Known about the structure:
The complex is a heterodimer of chains A (about 110) and B (about 120).
Chain A: E1 4-7, E2 10-13, E3 19-29, E4 33-38, E5 45-49, E6 53-54, E7 62-75, E8 85-92, E9 95-98, E10 102-106
Parallel strand pairs in A: 2-10
Antiparallel strand pairs in A: 1-3, 3-7, 4-5, 4-8, 5-6, 8-9, 8-10
Chain B: E1 3-7, E2 11-12, E3 18-25, E4 34-41, E5 48-54, E6 59-61, E7 69-74, E8 79-84, E9 93-101, E10 107-110, E11 114-118
Parallel strand pairs in B: 2-11
Antiparallel strand pairs in B: 1-3, 3-8, 4-5, 4-9, 5-6, 7-8, 9-10, 9-11
Amino acid sequence: DIQMTQSPSTLSASVGDRVTITCRASQTISNWLAWYQQKPGKAPKLLIYKASSLESGVPSRFSGSGSGTEFTLTISSLQPDDFATYYCQLYDTYYYTFGQGTKLEIK
Amino acid sequence: QVQLQESGPGLVKPSQTLSLTCIVSGGSISSDNYYWSWVRQPAGKGLEWIGHIYTSGSTKYNPSLKGRLTISVDKSRNQFSLRLNSVTAADTAVYFCARILYRGYYFDSWGQGTLVTVSS
């Protein structure tokens, strides 16, 4: 089984900051990697799919990159609405795995 | 715009069967463009894919739950269902139904989630 390690688990930042969240896979994966934002009491919301494709309606300050075993989600300039928990998700041979989550907090 | 809505008991006794249904509106569950899935999230913890079903009826299950799990589809009612047998307190979680894009391999639409508590 492929293991996903998401880091950091918690991130403190200020409005206007640029932040990066990383997911590392235990072995090389294809680019079937997605990122989600989740707010308390709500379902996750798709942000990025296929590692770097921006979902329709998602602000352009969100971007995804990476290949092989390392993938990143970048928020270029944090807005108040961005403070939430973020998850990566990979697909590998019929199965889906989520990262452990990164809670983005206001500094 | 597709909408998904979970329904089912919020309380299940240990060793019994957890049953949930996801009603799909605004789109056809018979579409060959999507898988229909279940994801759960224990309180304060991360997301866990449970399994999914395709319109053909073919299923894939999380190996950690295999043997206790059945996902089925009812095309006439445009809904799909989850049955998890022999539940324990570890199965207490918010259960989401979600749609996966076929050959896109990501979850593009989600239900609001329903809390299921396993307790006597």
